[in-house]
Amino acid sequence: MRIPEQTFAAAQAGDPAALQHLLVQLRPDIRRYAAYQCKRSSAVDDVVQEALIILYRRIGTVRTASALGGWLLRIVGRLCMLPALMFMRGVEDLRGVEESARFARMPVDELRLDLVRALESLPAAQREIVLLRDMQEMTIRDIAAHLAITPEAAKSRLHRARAMVREYLLAGEAA
């Protein structure tokens, strides 16, 4: 990864053209890093997008152009670990092993009906984003383009929708 010092300095100073040039130039390297480090190939596009967003926002924190490659490698590595960390956090959010065990013992047909009811209870915007991500397996970037919103808004909407589904399912278990 060879970035001219003047392009790097201009990007750090906030020059939009230099920053755009830097992002375009680094995208293939970031993609290669993500393809190498991420275990799931479906996560690569999301990791690339997130790494570019982080680079855009935090370019000022990188000391030199020569340090940029190592910095990006660490960012991509952390982003590739996020699905596992989110899974672990999600398991903790189930409020213990007994709640997980109740869902595991629930008849599949009953669980499916509860899930359909939970999805139907969502506002249309949240229901649509869950279906696009989890049923059609679209990436965050594709969902954002489809809905004409930012990737950040798509992630936020998806997070809220999943939280609402989880609350619905847990409330149904308590009843």
Automatic annotation (TrEMBL):
One of its GO terms (biological process) is DNA-templated transcription initiation. Residues 113-163 form the RNA polymerase sigma factor 70 region 4 type domain. Keywords: Sigma factor, Transcription, Transcription regulation. Residues 25-80 form the RNA polymerase sigma-70 region domain. GO terms for molecular function: DNA binding; sigma factor activity. It holds the Pfam family Sigma70_r2. It comes from the Bacteria. Belongs to the sigma-70 factor family. ECF subfamily. This is RNA polymerase subunit sigma-24. It comes from Pseudoduganella armeniaca. The lineage of its organism: Bacteria, Pseudomonadati, Pseudomonadota, Betaproteobacteria, Burkholderiales.
